[in-house]
Write a structure and sequence with these properties.
111 residues; Alpha-Beta Plaits; 2 domains; three-stranded mixed beta sheet
Length: 111
């Protein structure tokens, strides 16, 4: 009987700790304004966009930063031509989950 009571108390304690832990973590996610799913989607978009850049023969050695916020992608850095910029933006627009691509890319050698 004593063993059963001890197990029940442990179960209740663990259940209470789990509830408080879940409440704590869900509160943190909402403070950023993004759900866990949105964070994962943005990470996947950034990964795929970086893969597009690395695999582009004219852009793979350039420094281009990619950020994504709820599917809105921002590209910053430099490219070697307007054609490279256009091609990258077009490919990144096709990534699942991308809503809009903001380009802040500068073309090297132009002002």
């Amino acid at each position: 009987m004593n063993n059963s009571r001890c197990l029940r108390q442990k179960f209740i304690l663990l259940s209470v700790l789990m509830v408080f832990g879940l409440a704590l973590f869900s509160g943190c996610a909402s403070m950023t304004g993004k759900t866990a799913g949105e964070n994962i989607d943005d990470a996947a978009i950034i990964t795929e966009a970086n893969a597009i850049i690395v695999n582009d023969p004219d852009a793979k050695f350039l420094k281009i930063d990619v950020e994504s916020e709820k599917g809105d992608v921002m590209l910053t850095g430099a490219v070697n031509s307007y054609e490279t910029e256009r091609r990258l933006v077009e490919k990144i627009r096709q990534i699942k989950g991308v809503k809009f691509v903001h380009t802040h890319l500068t073309v090297e050698g132009t002002k």
